[in-house]
Amino acid sequence: xxxxxxxxxxxxxxxxxxxxxxxxxxxxxxxxxxxxxxxxxxxxxxxxxxxxxxxxxxxxxxxxxxxxxxxxxxxxxxxxxxxxxxxxxxxxxxxxxxxxxxxxxxxxxxxxxxxxxxxxxxxxxxxxxxxxxxxxxxxxxxxxxxxxxxxxxxxxxxxxxxxxxxxxxxxxxxxxxxxxxxxxxxxxxxxxxxxxxxxxxxxxxxxxxxxxxxxxxxxxxxxxxxxxxxxxxxxxxxxxxxxxxxxxxxxxxxxxxxxxxxxxxxxxxxxxxxxxxxxxxxxxxxxxxxxxxxxxxxxxxxxxxxxxxxxxxxxxxxxxxxxxxxxxxxxxxxxxxxxxxxxxxxxxxxxxxxxxxxxxxxxxxxxxxxxxxxxxxxxxxxxxxxxxxxxxxxx
Length: 395
Known about the structure:
Strand order of the largest sheet: 1-2
Helix content: 55-70%
Strand content: under 5%
Number of strands: 4
Distance between the termini: 83 Å
Number of domains: 1
Mean pLDDT: 82
Shape: globular
């Protein structure tokens, strides 16, 4: 019964998110929440409405309240999420100061901590190490960090929304396999994934609407809360490392961005063109190919995390190591233009023609035998005259 109930909630979230997005798009244009490209960092060349995350939030809130009894976890998500959605809408219209947004995120994270969403211990190999007085600052750092990580990776059409969807499904899979999370937490995670899926068709390249800070802040905050109450607080052997694996892609991209900007004497919130998705674009890939590559990386990390849920950690470690080796191989291939063409991955955006593949770097190619009746050594097939050939040579 719980399974059927959860599937119905998921489907409703998908449909509601899909139906609300056109309405939100019209509303965004009316209030002038439109992203106009003014620098080389942006990937679009025409104005695109923002605040698409409002459709995700409304779909999530309506379905959650309709299918699930409000408890402390859901109220924490709804109150904190609504606060971030309001800040996101204001930022998508007026471009608020980055440190003001950070202050609001910290306040919302402290609110979540006051409601019991805390990382109290670390589980490694069956041993549990309590954090004690460090529990609150570590939890605030996790919530604020993941909230900004989703926001930072929102640089290509469909990237942040798709990554959030994959992370939601990965969290849901971990919760179901571990058996430690409650049914309510699983249902909330499924509803979040459904709301993202409903919005995604309007956000994929070429995007008709961006979710903006409105959606990125809400998704990052909600995923952080769900990871705390659904994974960190469980008795899984590697409970501390599983969320790190699930969110490794956005967290790593954000960490490198902050280090890179500080190393150059810039503010960590000053936008640049050094994110992973920008590097893929600069290597010659289109938006669609770059997004697919990052989707694949995120999905493999999520699957690796799901295999770490049981005491038999060998399989999960093997998959994780294999995934890292695959990533290294892919990186080597993508760095070399010739190898990249051989891989079959190239820019397909806006009807771009595929590159000409050359095999000059391959020696000793086997020659195919001549077909029966085919012309050889400049001769003609039986029954065929040589007039055209002679005419050509005589010109």
